[in-house]
Amino acid sequence: MDWTQFSLTVVLTAIGTWLARSYLGSYLGKKGENRAIHEDLEKINRQLETIKSEFSLKLDFYKVVYPEKVKAAIDLHSLAAKLFMDIPAYYVGAQDRQRAAELEADAGVMLWRAKSYEFMLGEEVVRLTREYRMICVMVFLVEREARSRDVPPVGHGDVWAHEESFKALAIALRQTLYLDTLDRLMESAENKVTKN
After folding, report:
1. Ramachandran bin of 157, using left for φ above 0, alpha for ψ from -120 to 50, beta for the remaining angles
2. Residue 112 above 90 pLDDT?
3. Where are the domains of the chain?
4. Model pLDDT for residues 147-173, shown as the tens digit of each residue
5. CA separation (Å) from 116 to 73, 120, 171?
6. 78-81 long-range CB contacts below 8 Å, 24 or more apart?
7. pTM over 0.70, yes/no
8. Cβ atoms 95, 103 nearer than 8 A
């Protein structure tokens, strides 16, 4: 092997290496990029599966609890609505002391039920029920001399003193049934997706 042949071999090897390097470099770069994308997709899929399983567990729990929650809310709302209708009738009527005691007992049962449903309906419903009961008792059911003078029985127009607290309780019950749980589930799923 002479010097010319050796030089030619070196030059051809250098040119071949240079050509192969650009091809292999882009090939290996693309291969690495594809591998990184694949790993990212696997990570996202694992996160989605985790979210799906958590959502599924929450949904199964909600399917069990929701019918009981609806029964509790309807029961509490019907007690509050009955009291809402009976209070003005009592106040406008003869104001029999025995009837006042019955209405006060109904208000007590309503509060007791709200406390027993606290797990399903929440603390806010219990607080609003307590406020509603207090307005009904202090403004309408205690004897005329001991009634709360801070809150008149009938305000501007035909608005009764207990109307606002009844509406607040009704809205809280509606939100507890429909919006509360659905919003939390959706917010939980959105937060997990945005965190990852």
Report:
1. left
2. yes
3. 3-195
4. 666 666 776 667 788 888 888 888 888
5. 12, 9, 19
6. 79/106, 79/109, 79/110, 79/113, 80/110, 80/129, 80/132, 80/166, 80/169, 80/170, 81/166
7. no
8. no
